Amino acid sequence: MSDIAVQSETPVNPLEELGNILDSDMRAVNTLILKYMDSPVKLIPQLASYLIAAGGKRIRPLLTLASTAIYEGDMTRAHRLAASVEFIHTATLLHDDVVDGSEERRGQDAANLVFGNQASVLVGDFLFSRAFQLMTEDGSLDVLRILSNASAIIAEGEVMQLTTANNLSTTMDEYLQVIEAKTAALFAAACEVGPIIAGADTAQAKAMADYGLNMGIAFQIADDTLDYMAQREKLGKTIGDDFREGKITAPVLFALAKADDQERKFWHRTLVDLNQNDDDLQEACTTIKKHNAIESCSNLAMTYKCKAIEALRLAPETKLRNLLEELTDYTITRKF
Questions:
Q1: Residues 97-110: pLDDT tens digits?
Q2: According to CATH, what is the number of the domain 14-333?
Q3: Phi and psi for 55 in degrees, rounded to 5?
Q4: Handedness of CA 152, 157, 160, 162 (dihedral sign)
């Protein structure tokens, strides 16, 4: 049975446990988020709060808080950097939804539909600026280097994704390069800044960065797989978005590797020509399951999960470290 599957029992949610342990810290981060997204230009806090108030898993700021607490670092500094990480993430969501023409985000209409593309892009820019203000207030050049590099890599990843979309010649290596850049880079940075501000050595910081990078890759593989199998209300976004946009993701790549001529014609019509009928998403899901692509995605995600756990072994053994290890399991077994 696939690990990335709709299971009969909900797996234990280590995110909730992390949130409980770090509750006061997360409340401090939320206070900073509200403070720094404020502006006399009323549309800015209105649009930013529309997306931020809708929730989300807050996994990235929690990673920054946890990775700092594991090394007994200054949590006041961690609050600022966690808020910065969340602003970078939120800004990329706003920009991505405009590029993708998304209709839904976190269970509600996407901000670009409600406020327009121009406002979404500009408020995304504002949030990026706030993220850099928080970084510079921290005062660490190492932190600034890590988070600014991640921001640049994320942008590169989004551009790379444009070159792979609607392209059946995309390789698995190219797909992995895209998700490493657009998703995993921020996971890595969110984890790396913790030991940095705690004064841990280079090896410890690299280990946490490696944990975040590999966990982020596993997270995105699972997310791309859920797009072809999850229930809409569980996932919090419209199912089949990747298919409708012609994105070439892991489940499609595994199905393409075993496709016959008729199936390749189907994938070309639907993903390259974007000539799609009402029943095509269901046919895509059926074809993906026929070629055991879900199981192949699960195995691929498991590979990166194991790399993440191995990297984490260098960190001090604490309750928080154990929860970060459990988080890698939850990443590839979640049903949302």
A1: 888 777 777 668 88
A2: 1.10.600.10
A3: 105, -125
A4: negative
